């Protein structure tokens, strides 16, 4: 079976040559273990941070060891009482075609309730990130204006729709005209700004946000954050969810660089990590997302690549915005 290791730490944008495929034997599960076949592998921007050898909220990946991420897998053999052959599970697992894992860290998922890949996106990490970041930190109120960057991505496409459910006006920022059409259509955004074809983001935001910005859900950081702060309203809230525009840089730009704005306008800016800050509330969040999905109030999009050999490239493509919605790789038939 194949496994994908981190061969060297990426410099700037990750390359295929930073990864290595290795052939290995599959072992047999011992007591309380299961043998798993990977079906869907999640690739996520935060994995870039783990490829650096620096202290963070999560351990760095080790060189010549497999990358790990959220994976939906099928149980092939079970020595654990909670699982039987044919069950589907979600786990934080290694980028391997087959692997033996401890049963205690796996959660069963039901393919009859939702598409299996949805447990990696709308009903998984990115959906929960959108939900808790927006509702608990952003605390949007009816009639307010919510701006979202990375608006056509997994988190951002969900944030906009939840803000609409809360009765807000929504403006999304994304990197192509096709994505702007998508967010205004499928994800219900009122306005869209293509940051790649806009010279002056401060003005573009000001034009789209006739009443200013009350809540900014930031997935990208950098200059778009600066431009937003220049349009933020009194008592505005800024949710620092991610800063993908900075992930491949050696030196992070310092910020916020707009002198005194947070002070003068009493703006609250807060970061979070899903697991650390909202880990206890996942059931509540998942229930809410599932309910909205069922009621037809939430749409979601996935970019599904096929083949285990495509996993590194799918990850790399996140940084050039090749994905719409959640990027996942289907590595075996269900
Ligand atoms: P996405 O599905 O949004 O994929 C990444 C997107 O980022 C791309 O499609 C691309 O879209 C955009 N992008 C890439 N480079 C840049 C750039 N230089 N400037 C602006 N946009 C860029 O990923 P996720 O939804 O999984 O994650 C979104 C953000 O949320 C990330 O920053 C991630 O790290 C963060 N996150 C944080 C969590 C937390 O607990 N705090 C948990 C999960 C995610 P485009 O074409 O528009 O450029």
Automatic annotation (TrEMBL):
Domain of life: Bacteria
Keywords attached to this entry: Oxidoreductase
Disordered: annotated span: 1-24
Membrane-spanning parts: none
Residues in Enoyl reductase (ER) domain copies: 14-329
Keyword Oxidoreductase: yes
Pfam families: ADH_N_2 (PF16884), ADH_zinc_N (PF00107)
Matches recorded under InterPro entries: ADH-like_C, ADH_N_2, ER, MDR_fam
Protein's name according to its UniProt entry: NADP-dependent oxidoreductase
Organism of derivation: Mesonia aestuariivivens
């Amino acid at each position: 079976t194949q496994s994908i290791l981190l061969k060297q730490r990426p410099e700037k944008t990750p390359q295929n040559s930073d990864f290595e495929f290795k052939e290995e034997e599959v072992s047999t599960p011992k007591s309380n273990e299961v043998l798993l076949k990977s079906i869907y592998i999640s690739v996520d921007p935060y994995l870039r941070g783990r490829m650096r050898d620096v202290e963070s909220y999560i351990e760095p990946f080790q060189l010549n060891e497999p990358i790990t991420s959220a994976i939906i897998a099928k149980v092939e053999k079970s020595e654990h009482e909670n699982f039987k052959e044919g069950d589907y599970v979600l786990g934080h697992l290694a980028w391997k075609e087959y692997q033996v894992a401890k049963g205690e860290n796996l959660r069963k998922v039901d393919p009859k309730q939702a598409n299996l890949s949805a447990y990696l996106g709308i009903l998984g990490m990115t959906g929960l990130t959108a939900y808790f970041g927006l509702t608990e930190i952003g605390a949007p109120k009816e009639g307010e204006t919510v701006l979202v960057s990375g608006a056509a991505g997994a988190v951002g496409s969900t944030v906009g729709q939840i803000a609409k459910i809360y009765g807000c006006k929504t403006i999304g920022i994304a990197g192509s005209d096709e994505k702007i059409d998508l967010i205004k259509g499928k994800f219900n955004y009122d306005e869209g700004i293509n940051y790649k074809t806009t010279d002056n983001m401060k003005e573009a935001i000001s034009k789209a946000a006739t009443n200013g910005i009350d809540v900014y859900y930031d997935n990208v950081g950098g200059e778009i954050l600066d431009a937003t702060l220049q349009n933020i309203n009194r008592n505005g809230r800024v949710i620092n969810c991610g800063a993908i525009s900075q992930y491949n840089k050696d030196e992070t730009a310092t910020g916020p660089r707009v002198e005194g704005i947070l002070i003068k306008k009493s703006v609250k800016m807060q970061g979070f990590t899903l697991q650390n800050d909202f880990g206890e509330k996942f059931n509540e969040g998942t229930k809410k997302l599932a309910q909205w999905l069922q009621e037809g109030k939430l749409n979601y999009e996935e970019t599904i690549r096929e083949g285990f050999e495509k996993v590194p490239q799918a990850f790399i493509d996140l940084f050039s915005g090749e994905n719409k919605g959640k990027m996942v790789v289907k590595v075996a038939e269900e």
